[in-house]
Amino acid sequence: MPISDVFKWKKRASLMYAVGAWTICGSLAYYRYSHKEPLVTATPVEEEDKENVKKYQGTHHKTTVVYKEEFVPYSTRLLNLLKSPATEDSPAASEGQKDET
Fold it and tell me: Keywords for this entry (predicted)?
């Protein structure tokens, strides 16, 4: 096959690939735009037995979330771990506490 035919074949193949790719992208965008489903929103259910139990009900699901009593968030735990013990024992901190009382 002559070199000129190879370049023609390459141009035709790349054009075919580009048209096919843009057709698929356009079809997907059109399908998503035209077949939108309504958004499902979860609404809290009013009947709450305990303070640490939350119930949510959507169109197709019912969710119950139970929170632990006296739970300390991980961010607070990490903050307490990284706090320097020197800041709690410093004289300035002691004086500040004395002034407040």
Answer: Membrane, Transmembrane, Transmembrane helix
pLDDT in tens, 5-19: 888 899 999 999 999
Which residues are bridge partners to 55 per DSSP? 64
- The CA dihedral of 66, 70, 76, 78, to the nearest 10 degrees, is -90
Sign of the C-alpha dihedral computed for residues 91, 94, 100 and 101 taken in this order: negative
Question: Burial code of 43-79, b = ≥16 C-beta within 10 A, e = fewer?
Answer: eeeeeeeeeeeebeeeeeeeeeeeeeeeeeeeeeeee
pLDDT one-digit tens code per residue, 42-100: 666 566 566 777 888 888 888 888 888 788 888 888 888 888 665 666 555 555 555 55
Per domain, the residue ranges of the chain are 1-36, 43-100
For residue 94, give Cα distances in angstroms to 57, 80, 84, 85, 89: 51, 19, 15, 13, 7
